[in-house]
Amino acid sequence: MSEMVKKPIGITETILRDAHQSLIATRMPTELMLPILDKMDKVGYHSIECWGGATFDASLRFLKEDPWERLRKIRDGLKNTKTQMLFRGQNILGYRPYADDVVDYFVQKSVANGIDIIRIFDCLNDIRNLQEAVDATNRVKAQEGKGHAQVALSYTLGDAYTMEYWVDMAKKIEEMGADSICIKDMAGLLVPYKASELIKAMKENTKLPIQLHTHYTSGVASMTYLKAVEAGVDVIDCAMSPFALGTSQPATEVMVETFKGTEYDTGFDQNLLAEIADYFRPYRDEALASGLLNPKVMGVDIKTLLYQVPGGMLSNMVSQLKEQNAEDKYYDVLREIPEVRKDLGEPPLVTPSSQIVGTQAVFNVLMGERYKMATDQTKDMLRGKYGKTVKPMNQEVIDKVIPGEEIRTERSGAYVENELDKLEAEMAEWKQQDEDVLSYALFPQVAVDFFKYRQAQQEKVDMTQADSKNGAYPV
Length: 475
Known about the structure:
It contains 21 helices and 8 strands. It is of the alpha/beta class. The chain has an 8-stranded parallel beta barrel with strand order 1-2-3-4-5-6-7-8, surrounded by 5 helices. Helix 8 links the parallel strand 5 (148-154) and strand 6. The radius of gyration is 22 Å and the shape is globular.
């Protein structure tokens, strides 16, 4: 028998970012992460995803932590493993398109503070909205020899999304200077045999490494990984078992066991993984007990395949309906979502397009008349502010919501003047490190609240006595 050719599958660990973002609304504090980094660093992961996505916003807003400080501490703890972040193209980690100078500076500072791999995506798969971030990463790489630009395609279903479409996108990503490709299946819509077909087709048309990211929401993810690995995918995203499955990723230990003894064997030590799982398990139990981890997000919801709604978007929608005492309208809204999505040019449903489509669907159902009221974000989407959709938008809806307005056709960043100096001037009084201007750029109000809190902590003020309205802090 011939010697087995080894091609171990790479694993990106998501427990420090997407796993807790998907299951417990991104509430894992930095203190909890640090003690286990040493063990995680010994596993041999392809990378550890630990920053970006919603972690930046949640750190400032809910945890009263500096996200840059988190990144530096994680970097210190991971001596041998690459770190990875998720970056929303021209929207960075915020919800509007930023100027190129802000995108560039954010990329520079991310790498300077410890990020190795930047996974960049756009909610419309509009490649133009990714170019600046990719170029910025490549500039840093040329100067400093570190930084890796991975472009992620938001996977979705619909008439426009043919195999030709995906293959064509893969070629474009290679041409634009990316280092690798990620298929980002945020709603768990990629089924096993389709994954096999997709990976093979992409592999035939691009030399770039291909990584697959999915969620367990619809219940097929582990099987999808199995077929994708057999088809030649290079890396898969997994989460340690205490924060795996449900709306998170397949479990790391399960995938390691699956490929043991095959040509794809990771070589990871299950005893070491067990120690890491033991570390996180009490936190999972605590999150369940406090209600932070809702059992609802831990199961399988095959409706995902029907309505294509990512887990985070579902929970958002449920809370919007609860606030309006309209939970009985749940299925009406679920049926309305694909309709709104079609009206808006059939975009993939991922932040921020998922929030835009979901909120608009809720409005359409609650108002009893479609587009009687449209959110500012829906208007901006129709105006072309977010970029170009794969299919044209519904002209009747455009005429009803933004009659007579000019529709933009350039990339989203083209309309934003350089703004770094202006932002710098606005927040000068709070600045303690260069990175503060970026926190402010992304979340002005939230960042200022955090800066005030930080200052109060440094001056050891009793916040209960502080008159925060007038900014008077008794010492």
